[in-house]
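tool_call predict_complex ligand=guanosine-5'-triphosphate
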Amino acid sequence: MPTNLPPQARLKFEEYTQAKTPEEKIKKLRELYSLIPKHKGTEKLEKFIRRRIAELKREVEKKKPEKRAKRVGPFIKKKGAAQIVLLGYTNSGRSTILKSLTNARVRISPNPFTTSDPFEGAMRIKGTFIQFVETPPLIPQDYDAKPTKIALALARNADAIALVVDGTDNPVQSVSDIISLLEANGITIGGSPGRVKIRKSRGVSSIIISMKGRVIDGTEADIRMLLESYGIKQAIVDIEGTVSMEDVEEAIFGDKIRKPTFVFVTRTDLEDGKGGFLKVKDAFPELKVYPFSPTNPLNKEELGTDLLELLGIIRVFTKPFGRKEPDEKALILERGSTVIDAAAKIHKSFAKTFKYAKIWSERLPYSPMRVGKDFLLEDGDILEIKG
Ligand SMILES: Nc1nc2c(ncn2[C@@H]2O[C@H](COP(=O)(O)OP(=O)(O)OP(=O)(O)O)[C@@H](O)[C@H]2O)c(=O)[nH]1
Ligand SMILES: [Mg+2]
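tool_result ok
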């Protein structure tokens, strides 16, 4: 819900958006903070202002030449249905997980800092594979260290984040610390995979919305109203993937990324590790938490199905018309895709010549079922299109 700001606060917000330097922006935000009424409805806004001030302060710091951070931007090309980073401290067991789930020939060692460069592997599941990337370790004593920077850059680029924590070494604290680190770097964990970007621009005469995704709980008119309630009249809004109105509101305060996130708790073959796993599960009920030990490996097919669900992805197995068996390689689609979306993805012209389709699935009362173009697909469906 839009926060109803009193007029002075709205004016101050406008002054903030027009401020040129970070120093000036900090000043305006501080003034705005003192102007907003403090109640439940403005808690979020307060939080954003605090976060934005912290970010701007860091920006000011960075501008000082002796402290300028080097840009690190390693990039692992995405392959398969999705890219997931394994993020955690050194020795937490990231390589052990990578080796257990994928074909990667990564080195595992009791010595710290064994994996210093990103390492990737593919977890094969029915119809596709999921790419896992072990990042350099997060350094808890020094989050400005290069390995942490590289790890965060990789996390920012990935489709999902797997937090890896040692079950025998304060795992609840580790999860909570890593989440704070991500938040401080503009990455919000959990929720739907998507991105909202709002660029205030005098070059456009109104609010222009470029919708490459979907807003689950609002319309384009709602977005316009929300932005206007913050005094924004000229802006370009880019929406990718699935987002909520809350995401849009948060994006007003800066570019914002939300990543689906889950947790691996390692060393659950040890008594302490088992206890640690239960504690993490208790402490973070909103996150999916998996126990891990090399002696009791996870079922890849089940894990894969879980992860696709978390990512909002489905696999559809297409069958060329008249053939008996569907393709082994799945068509990867966003959840919410219909038969016509699948047709368009196979071939543009296919969507135009579409007549009807047949679906085979255990969820249907009978198979094959003849369906129209708006039929909603689900993970595992077999699809034959008559064009
Ligand atoms: N008992 C037990 N040992 C584990 C488990 N996971 C990892 N280890 C051991 O912990 C040590 C570190 O594991 P790695 O997988 O290399 O850890 P990492 O997070 O990749 O660490 P770096 O790459 O060095 O930062 C190794 O000696 C592993 O054998 C586990 O679930 N149970
Ligand atoms: Mg490693």
